[in-house]
Here is the input.
Amino acid sequence: MLSRLAKEHSEGTLNDSIVSTRRTRASATRSIIQHPMCELDTLRDVIRGFSPAWFTVSMGTGIVSMLLYGFPYEWSPLKYIAMGIALLDLLTFVVTLVLFTWRMVQYRDFFNILLHPQMSMSLGAAPMAFTTLITSIVTILAPYGVAWMPTLALVLWCINIVFAVLSFLAIPFLVTSHQKHAFENVNATLLLPVVPTVVTSSAGALVASVHSGTTAVAVVLISYALWAIGVGISLMLLTFYVVRLVLHKLPPPDTIISAFIPLGVLGQAS
Here is the structure.
């Protein structure tokens, strides 16, 4: 009788321990999803907490590369510095893509990210980062007359269109149908899923410049279409954001940097 009670007690303790462990892991998972930039200890935690917001690193690196390459004051070493930064942009994008894909394959939580009101916005940074690679390819390789460059740029640009349009259509749909947002908590990251169409259209101008005939005309027309849908929705969202600023003032300090996002869509649209 006593042995049976001891056995039942030990089994009950084990079950309670398992349940407690599962709850702890679930709580940690929710914490990582809600706070993807929190301190992480192990490689497993790093992969689990890897956010699509890291694509903004590649995006910013590519922009710096193009700014230096197109610098108006002639200084020959600056071109090579820009090329080096462009290679760093490529490496950053590949590493970010591999780690993010690793997370999607291992944890299969892509739908959780899509339904998250903040992390889903960052998915728009991926096609924009990819656009900087296309721009670098055309801008840097065109003066050297690389034969395969126009075809490569066109193929990559077409791939980028698919992801830009998916970002433009899917994420705003989820914002209005599944996600929960409060008006006072809205910030300029709401523009991120829409901006890729505008950025891709600006890259289309470069792609068209290295082609001729029907191909160039088709690229220009598609670019105008992407520009129109992107700018139209962006202006609506900017109006919404300005009203939010008037009623609820500036965003909190941890998201104040998002106030610069409208510069991207307005600058590219011009």
